[in-house]
Amino acid sequence: MKLRVGFEMLYEFPQPTPMIMVLGTHFTRASDMIVPDFLTTDPVVEIAPYRDMFGNWCSRIVAPAGHMRLSGDGVVRDSGLPDPVFASAFQHTIESLPAETLPYLLGSRYCETDRLSEIAWKLFEKTPLGWARVQAICDFVHHHIAFGYEHARATKTAWEAYSEGKGVCRDYAHLAITFCRCMNIPARYCTGYLSDIGTPQPWAAGDFAGWFEAYIGGRWHTFDPRNNVPRIGRVLIGQGRDACDVPITQTFGPNKLTSFKVWTDEIA
Amino acid sequence: MKLRVGFEMLYEFPQPTPMIMVLGTHFTRASDMIVPDFLTTDPVVEIAPYRDMFGNWCSRIVAPAGHMRLSGDGVVRDSGLPDPVFASAFQHTIESLPAETLPYLLGSRYCETDRLSEIAWKLFEKTPLGWARVQAICDFVHHHIAFGYEHARATKTAWEAYSEGKGVCRDYAHLAITFCRCMNIPARYCTGYLSDIGTPQPWAAGDFAGWFEAYIGGRWHTFDPRNNVPRIGRVLIGQGRDACDVPITQTFGPNKLTSFKVWTDEIA
Amino acid sequence: MKLRVGFEMLYEFPQPTPMIMVLGTHFTRASDMIVPDFLTTDPVVEIAPYRDMFGNWCSRIVAPAGHMRLSGDGVVRDSGLPDPVFASAFQHTIESLPAETLPYLLGSRYCETDRLSEIAWKLFEKTPLGWARVQAICDFVHHHIAFGYEHARATKTAWEAYSEGKGVCRDYAHLAITFCRCMNIPARYCTGYLSDIGTPQPWAAGDFAGWFEAYIGGRWHTFDPRNNVPRIGRVLIGQGRDACDVPITQTFGPNKLTSFKVWTDEIA
Amino acid sequence: MKLRVGFEMLYEFPQPTPMIMVLGTHFTRASDMIVPDFLTTDPVVEIAPYRDMFGNWCSRIVAPAGHMRLSGDGVVRDSGLPDPVFASAFQHTIESLPAETLPYLLGSRYCETDRLSEIAWKLFEKTPLGWARVQAICDFVHHHIAFGYEHARATKTAWEAYSEGKGVCRDYAHLAITFCRCMNIPARYCTGYLSDIGTPQPWAAGDFAGWFEAYIGGRWHTFDPRNNVPRIGRVLIGQGRDACDVPITQTFGPNKLTSFKVWTDEIA
Q1: What ipTM, to 2 d.p.?
Q2: Partner C, chain A 195-224, Cβ-Cβ below 8 Å
Q3: Entry pTM
């Protein structure tokens, strides 16, 4: 299966404005790139890539005053298979977790493990360990949060998503990540493209998706509490402790986003 | 000058409990160790060391049910000089910052840059760039927050410290870090020992101190908005994005901390 | 200047075979990447990135039985200037070396400092300290070893290269590293791309190059005893104590390498 | 049980000589120290500690010309139990190994995995995986190498120990480590004190012991192919890839070792 993936964002800047970005298919999917979705800017400015502490390849630019178009458009090969299920993946004891997974047990900007720990234990203490526990968390979150773009808020945390019962895909992910960490399961945030293949129409306007990975059974596994069914056509862009680590774009100064498009479409 | 540094924490655990710890003098001060303040446990348990993504050497143990004493007691050489002041340290443009400092511009668990950005710009937009701006932030924070151990709360964030106007040293540090990041100055959290040398008596009971470092003039510089004067006898233990990254101790299970002592005393 | 850099390796595996790899431009050159030379595999397999103790970002995969193509192809910006020369770089006393350079004084798999110490002192005791001493080592090694791909041997050590007087670029590097360490100068191995720009034709078939860095004058400096002239178009891939630490590829099982291509070409 | 542990080394130096040392009980045993075996020097010189990349606390000094006595003498608590056996510890697939264990699969100065791989597979291919395989390796090495201090040689590698069939404890360890790595089991070298408790007299003169740890069943386990029975009173000093990483002492200049004593004795 081939997917056309890409994005277009139009900005207006009153003054020259530095930006950092985590955009474009993750380097671990390079083998699948038929046409790479490299970042392009209009007007042309120098793009300085860098690698963050999570291994993501990021970009920085200084946008001049005026209009700026950021875009990328590529074609990526995909297995066409739904997210795999490893129902027997076991839960590690904390003492047997690889050291590199331990940061993913701690709190982070949008994942207040300290505030949600008691609730997590009440909710999930009796669920089976491992894959089943992560799935139980996803099931709870999927039903607890009502989806709606009108509920999106850049500052919304897992605790707030839990209390308000409303949110968008990243809030589902943050709440499930927080619960996993409270239950001693390392969990990290993922952002990427996600196709609508196999889901009933009408389809919502394209957007980047947020999901997460849990470390069980000796490796990281994909979970998506927003959709909560194995999905087809998931293409990773970036990974971190939560959405704060992998900003699609972060602008250092005032700006106006006048248009925002993302696509993830099957092509012949 | 020689400082005796150390700590003693007494815990009660109802069941075997994994812990991770960032305790003991930081490896960058290794050459100053006369007697190392190595972590000891009573009862004796296996200690597994590991290095986190910030370079801190951390420890993990599984504490058995019952009483547990964690302690360390060492002697460290110190210059005896107050924190240095580099008043001419310039502020980097964002595009000239080394890539490894960029994570310290983003939000983190206790530093909600997104929520405090507008306030930061209102407060500090007219201050001179560089060292003076960081000092202006420290001055504001020092006067804005009223110190009191009764205001300590494990979940308290910079935003909450700002709103409540009350806190302990780590709240001062978190608020100043957040303001720095909002003003495009990378800032990271530090935890360590801090002596009372040169300050008027009576001295408060010993505790670990929280301060921060700002990246200006091509390097990291120490700032301490809680005390807001150059201090003598500061010994780093750990560094990270905020207190969440460098937990003195983090217990994975219920527990009771029955005693807590820290010392940082000049010795002959 | 722009360089097209990349590689293609064809393997045959009789059975599923785990591999680890240090491939692709080093993160310290990230800001020079115009088109990244990300690792691609055919057939597509999952790539798990990790960071080693030297800071290199590495990859691991499990290659299925059958044919496997590993490749990367990118474009990197370069100053176009030859390797810099700092003829006045001083030699550190051992006691003034930063602690993090000390591992690069010790022996390693291909650098038997214990066996070559006496020879090193006889050869280089009277040379001036610092840059001149490292250059004297490079001059000796450059003339002592006769280059020839037919002399390449995966197990060849510095001692063997010295005794046989034959080798390839990595043997030159290993011998010079070993002599440097024997003379108390920290030295580390580098692997990367190296263009032929500025050298007389005909050019040899492309290959990864091995060179080294010596710690003098407070920083690491590039030396290349194989070529022994400042070269243009050098792009780091990985660093370690010797070639053992930065395996281009390491296969855990039987395999056949049927084709191997590397390119580092100036483009318009 | 209490063990008195310590060492005394007498040196003669014709000129001021820098040294680095990995001496004294490992920091992970700090809880067991009743009297610490800190390094002392006579004449008194400044001791600069540092932490290496394996986490060991090391020391460096500059010994003046003339006589130098290095010593340490401490008392350490010990369980008195023999090395534990976890016969069911499973072998990890390479792809499920924590990234931090991967360096311990590669070759190192004294462990030529490249030269011993074929032999290893011939010898151990049919042994059961996990603990049993490591034990089979220890059994082979224990019988293959004839012990004798007259066979000690600073430059002796695993390959040479295998070929000559003679060696001392560190050669046993190096050969077993190399075989483990060839069989895809991470293995690291340990140096420390080892008492004679429970072994028949007469006892050899005291010395530091070399053994190793293998990563199986989600953690590091102790193995000692020299003795090849669980032993009592083992006190770790340092860990690394092989003996090269944890030099008891490494002198940077000519010297004469005139006396060498090590003790590990049960005390009342």
Answers
A1: 0.93
A2: 219
A3: 0.92
